[in-house]
Amino acid sequence: MTSYGATDIGKKRSVNQDYFYRNDEPVGCFPNLYIVADGMGGHKAGDKASSLAVSRFVELAGQTEGQFTFSAMEKIIRQVNKEVYQLSREDADYEGMGTTFVVATILEGKAFIMNIGDSRCYFYDGSLRQITLDHSLVEEMVRAGELRPAESRNHPQKNIITRAIGVADEVEPDFFLIDFPEGSRILLCSDGLSNMVDDEDLLDLLAKDLSDEELVGHCIDEALYFGGLDNITVVAARRENGRDAEC
Predict the structure, then answer these.
(1) Where are the domains positioned within the chain?
(2) Nearest to 107 by CA among 133, 70, 60, 80
(3) d(Cα 207, Cα 125) in Å, to the nearest integer?
(4) pLDDT in tens, 32-67
(5) Which one of 1, 39, 60, 196 has the fewest CB atoms closer than 10 angstroms to its CB?
């Protein structure tokens, strides 16, 4: 695997509440690990929620061995959620904080993906697919047929999240398993990218066969060009020839 990640504060925010992690080498039972989190809350709270969730997930992932990938992910994220939620209740500075979370690992030609909130994972193999489903009010209205997709991008309730880490004592992630052949790519991002850059423009960038670093840079540049209304975080990872490590 090869990867690259970057984050940008955008043009309108005073604080960057996004946080990411990428590692092409094993982390505990995970042969590689890619994460994007988008915090929410007050001036300090969102930043704390995303950074704490990612750092604790990585720390706990490093302690795993010989576990089934999704079981490990679920066990870790439930522990992370409890810790973020507990801090939000104990410290007034962090009251009401929460974060989205999307994580992926590639194992033996399969991508194991988990998400909570509206940070996304896309898959590219010549065509582009959004793998994760947004846990947001607007996207649930779209899936229910109450709103057309074209109406969702600028909807006034676009930022209402229906699931997040740290807002309740329990959390319900979604899991996705897809084939991940050699040469294919995943793109993890916060909504600072997906709200600014549509799928057609993302496909155009991916079709250029850029390096991971070039792709991430162009994605962020596009989001800034179209307004940069939020923090922008992108992690791109590609499977090269060869066998991935076993969990």
Answers:
(1) 2-238
(2) 70
(3) 9
(4) 999 999 999 876 799 999 999 999 999 999 999 888
(5) 60
